[in-house]
Amino acid sequence: MTVRDVVFPAGRQALYEKNRYSPAVRSGGFLFVSGQVGSREDGSPEPDPDAQVRRAFDNLNAVLHAAGCAFEDVVDVTLFIVDPETHFERIWGVAQQYWGAAPYPNATAVGVTWLYGFQFEIKVIARIPGDTPD
What we know:
Elements: E1 5-7, H1 13-19, E2 24-27, E3 30-37, H2 49-66, E4 74-82, H3 84-99, E5 106-112, E6 120-127
Parallel strand pairs: 4-5
Antiparallel strand pairs: 1-2, 2-3, 3-6, 4-6
Protein name: RidA family protein
Organism: Pseudoduganella dura
Pfam families: Ribonuc_L-PSP (PF01042)
């Protein structure tokens, strides 16, 4: 059995261990990042919806940074949104502040009914710089 090459962001390893999953795994030149939500350090949801999206991106960026990546290395994005008909435009507006310049990664938005008290979750796959040819 191959041992997973797990990446933990600084200061949050206990939270991931408590919940029994890895924040990200390196494999084949790519970084597969688990869904990131707008959780505070203790795991509780950020109450303000816009701040929750910002915190989700901050949590995502912490995982990417721990692996030597940045959002510019992201090639695939999946967004999970509770009640997207109501929240999509606002979430998309905040997300664009983190998105960066073109060319953009491909993206899929999925409407869901429940995210454990959160309104937004982002899951990505990133190319690890220097590990794979362009």
